[in-house]
Target: thioredoxin-disulfide reductase (NADPH)
Amino acid sequence: MAPIGDYDYDLVVIGGGSGGLAAAKEATNLGAKVAVLDYVTPTPLGTKWGLGGTCVNVGCIPKKLMHQAALLGEAIHDAKSYGWQVGDNISHSWEALKDAVQAHIKSVNWVTRVELRDKKVEYINGLGTFKDAHTVQTITKQGERLLKARYFLIAVGGRPRYPDIPGAVEYGITSDDLFSLDRAPGKTVIIGAGYIGLECAGFLVGLGYEATVMIRSVPLRGFDQQMANIIVAEMEDKGVKFLQKSIPKSVEKLDSGKLKVTWTNEAQQEFSDEFDTILFAIGRRALTKELNLDTAGVKVAGDGEKVDAVNEQSNVPHIYAVGDVLYKKPELTPVAIHAGRLLARRLFGNSTVNMDYENVATTVFTPLEYGAVGLSEETAASRYGEDNIEVYHAYYKPTEFFIPQKNIRHCYLKVVALREGDQKVLGLHFIGPQAGEVIQGFAAGIKCNLTMNALMSTVGIHPTIAEEFTRINITKRSGKDPNPASCCS
Model:
């Protein structure tokens, strides 16, 4: 597809993360001429990274690798119960893990650049800003460039926020820094109890470091709160400390090199403690303020940052957005990728298929993982009325936990369904090993209008943990004991 009129490109993508790259590659497959602008502003600590966006460099990928490292440490201890002759002097090297993780990330950065070159997507290592509605300006090592395009895609994602307190920026780090930290984290306080904060606390404790999580209000806001509180209880059993209803007030560096954190609780009592590392996980901001959106006429939503798009289209018809910059849409890598591909097909492939943002599955990679798809119990009750929903639930015993006598009291799942008819499933929630793998399969069922009748008619694979969804039959309403009688009946 040749450029039209005075345009240099059919599509210019601002942001080289998962969503932007997916759209760019799909567009070139469909004959479009595409350029991708990507530039990483270093963190206050000086951390920067290559092409690929948050997920590859400072998000899902390094997080999952460090989570796996922590699980392996736990598995080594479990192995003794299974007859493996494992010594008592087990230790872990942060430097070796960090180097291995970073080596993998750099390999992905390289493969990503090669793939863009092979697909003839022009990659420009520069920060793009709008000069007018059809022109983006960037400054590279070679100087200023102006890029004119038929369509633009805003896919710049977001970066972690810092609280407005003394010492936060000077002495704190975020998830942007943790995975390449050149020293062992040591005793760490994590400010924030969203999924990033809890995941980081979980693998730090699993690697042998002391971790404290400071919760301002509730853990895992936006997730089912019963499940969230079970996760907190499990993490406490694993050794994570929690400071409930607490707000940081200041960070001070002591002569010893330690960092003194002062905070208050809901009773306005003041406390302080010393830490080696302070990790802020209080949320992320969309990087739209750097784009000069006003110049292009693009309006942002009430939060002043995110684009309130309809089918990814902003109020300016030829300017689109995908990923974390979208208002009230899931901030998840696969969502951005899928939306980006579908958008490219609509723009250049005559497709009419739009992104469906409902019933997107996700997993929190805490030591005992939490996977979910569909509605939380609270949302279902609010939307349909408590009398119109049925909640099935069960505790279960993973076979693998028996011999090492691991704690099973937080292995729990529930299904939220409508009470009427075949009982359409509205949400599935699972806490246990490999929760992401379990929920991924059932997410397809939800997309196909899964019912409790169908779920209960499905024969499970024994002995697996995923089969627990096919065995579930006790409702909260019944008041019956949801604990299993035995594993095979």
